[in-house]
Structures are given as structure tokens and as C-alpha cells.
Design goal:
mainly beta, SH3 type barrels, 10-stranded mixed β-sheet, two-stranded antiparallel ribbon, 1 helix, about 10% helix
């Protein structure tokens, strides 16, 4: 997995989980268990937290072979949080990619986000660690 690629995880722990695409914020090495990611959403935010609006220029529409990506800009926002995601969570190939401008935009805003949060599902509970 490469920095700027967009994925949608396949591992779901409960029917109530929200299923958002994520942007990989680092190049992931084969030995890594976790990686930093941010979540993409249509929501402008809630609970006092504003999500950051993106623009069409932040996303590539096709891969290097001319195939259209599944993920396309559609009133897309970044959730202002960096998440630690487990590598096993990704079961599908890359569904989209940020442009150079998009990656620069996300990485500049990443500095404003809170610390990484680790999500682990243990016996049906979500444990958060900063």
C-alpha cells in the first residue's frame, strides 16, 4: 500500500459499523501490522468537529493504465483525525488515489488533526488509545 491510495476495508465487526473509505497516509511495508490513515466522508461534521472539504482536483480519476477508479470525488470531506488501521483490514485493491495536490492538502491538514487513535475490537467492545 502506498501513501495517497484510497481503500475500503472488508473487515466488519458489527452491522452498525460505518463503512467509510480511507486514505493511506504512509507507504506500508510488508512487515507492518498497522498504518496511519484518515477517513473520507460526505459529512460536513458533527459534535462540534468540522470535517475538511476537499475538491475535485484532489483526486485522480484513472489509474496509470487508464482504468477508472471506483472512488471518485463526490462532495468529499476528510475527518479531522488520524486513525491507526490494521493491515489485515484491507482486503481489496486500491479503489482510488489522491492527486499530488490532494496528497499535499491532506498532509498539510494532518498536522491539525488529533493524535492517532487505535481501534481494537475485543469481545464486542471498542477500546480507544491515544
Amino acid at each position: 500500500m502506498k501513501k495517497g491510495e484510497i481503500y475500503r476495508g472488508e473487515k466488519r465487526f458489527s452491522k452498525g459499523n460505518i463503512y467509510h473509505p480511507i486514505v493511506c497516509l504512509e507507504d506500508v511495508m510488508p512487515w507492518q501490522t498497522y498504518f496511519d490513515a484518515c477517513v473520507l466522508t460526505h459529512s460536513k461534521g458533527k459534535g462540534g468537529r468540522n470535517n475538511i472539504p476537499m475538491s475535485e482536483e484532489h483526486f485522480l480519476t484513472e489509474d496509470e493504465n487508464g482504468r477508472q477508479y471506483k472512488f471518485q470525488y463526490d462532495n468529499t470531506h476528510i475527518v479531522q483525525q488520524v486513525y491507526k488501521k490494521e493491515v489485515f483490514w484491507i482486503k481489496d485493491r486500491c479503489i482510488g488515489r489522491l492527486s499530488k495536490a490532494g496528497l499535499k492538502f491532506v498532509m498539510e491538514h494532518k498536522e491539525q488533526f488529533g493524535p492517532s487513535i487505535w481501534y481494537k475490537k475485543i469481545l464486542g467492545r471498542t477500546e480507544k488509545k491515544a
